[in-house]
Amino acid sequence: MRFFIVIHLFICSPEHKFKIITRSKHNNTQGLGVSELKNKTVLLLISKPQLLNPIDIFLLVQQTCDHPLNERLRESYKIVWIPLPFSDTWTEAEESSFNFLSDSLAWNAVQKPRLLSSAVVKYTREQWNYKDEPIMVALDSKGKVTNYNALDMIKIWGPQAYPFSASKVEELWQDQNLTMQLLLDGINPFLAYWVEQGKNICLYGSENLVWIQQFNDKITEVKRAGMQLETIYVGNSQSGENVKQIMARSGEKSFSDPLSFTNVQYFWLRLESMRRSKLRLGKTPSSDHVLAELSALLDMDAREEEWTVIGCGGSSSTDIFRLQGMQVMEFVRKCSEWRENITNLGFFGALRNFLDLHLLKGVAITHALFPLEKMKG
To answer: What is the pLDDT of residues 200-219, one digit of tens each?
Structure first.
């Protein structure tokens, strides 16, 4: 009964039978009764009629409908979009936006949201803390609210986060270290393959064209010397025309393996979601090493610093280092000093040894991220 009590909050009026607009396999739309949602996990996406910005929509679609794991869970959960107007009444622009998006999106939607009662809007704002920013409220198969906002966990883990409850968030983070798999999962199938193969990966970000040119020249020398290292340019969180131009130039000269501009935006959206998710759990950078490193990376980006993150693929590998621009230039310039140690120590052992040596010599590598077991000690 609880299911119907919660869902029937969204009955528009006594004379209007609640329906949702749903999509068939052939992309046709039809109105279905609320009983179609019974015994399923339901995600209520609540937003303004304009929904999210396009890149957020694309990422959500990729992490739900288009995700490889979604086929197995397709009938276990449903997303229903419930748009609420900015004020008490719908404007013509809001109506137009809803009609267009409900016809275009892969999710279900309330059929006539303009008829939702003021009590519904009040309940959503007061009980679910809706403040005009999109939220995704998760209900279990009995209609119980299990998460007041599942958006970030879906951006991070996609269907792996099913059933999208708050307890599932805690479970997913419980044993999660900072790995290349966490940073790159869900962005691009090619990157997923690299991670699965355990390749050495170097992410780098900046809008400083001079530094990028110098970095790429040095990395090219390192690769020619036989170093196995895949480089990926991820721009910055404010990805604009400068980043597009740098990406185009890097692709033309084969400096790094190209991501699409959209993939770069996915990368930053997921980092922000990871930080918010950790903070929502009450974590702090001083007590949580993953949050500390995510925050440090995002802070470097906010200060418009050059940076790199060098790590090894694999689901459990915690061989990962974060370096500022000048630090990584020192690292690649002195490649000959540590390259000979790779045979005995491996790539990351040689890198760790090099950084330890230069720390002992007083070289400032204050923002280097050492393997997590070292941090814990």
So the answer is: 899 999 999 889 988 888 88
If asked whether residues 70 and 156 sit together in one domain, one would say yes
Q: Count the neighbouring beta carbons within 10 Å of the beta carbon of residue 212.
A: 21
Answer with the one of 170, 189, 204 that is the final residue of a domain. Answer: 170
DSSP string across 75-122: TTEEEEEEE--SSSS--HHHHHHHHHHHHH-SSEEES-GGG--HHHHH
Q: Extract the tokens encoding 285.
A: 């950078």
Q: 215: how many CB neighbours lie within 10 A of its CB? A: 24
- Separation CA 216–CA 202 (nearest Å): 11
Sign (positive or negative) of CA dihedral 371, 372, 373, 377? positive
Beta bridge partners of 136: 45
Could you tell me if 139 and 147 are in contact, meaning their C-beta atoms sit under 8 angstroms apart? no
Distance from C-alpha of 66 to C-alpha of 187, rounded to nearest angstrom: 12
Rounded Cα distance, 219 and 181, in Å: 23
CATH code, domain carrying 21: 3.40.30.10
Q: Residue ranges of the alpha helices (H) in 233-364?
A: 241-252, 261-280, 289-302, 325-333, 335-339, 342-360
Closest by CA to 13, choosing from 137, 106, 105, 110, is 110
Q: How far apart are CA 291 and CA 330, in angstroms?
A: 27
pLDDT band per the 50, 70, 90 thresholds, residue 276: very high
Q: How far apart are CA 367 and CA 371, in angstroms?
A: 13
Bond prior to 371 in cis (omega within 30° of 0)? no
Assigned domain for 175 exists: no
**Per-residue model confidence (pLDDT) at position 219:** 85
Helices (H), 166-280: 166-174, 180-184, 189-197, 209-224, 241-252, 261-280
How many domains are contained in the chain? 2
Q: Indicate whether 9 and 105 sit together in one domain.
A: yes
Residues 85-127 have pLDDT tens digits of: 888 889 999 999 998 888 888 888 888 888 888 888 888 899 8
Closest CA to 165 of 148, 146, 142, 145: 146
Q: What is the pTM of this model?
A: 0.86
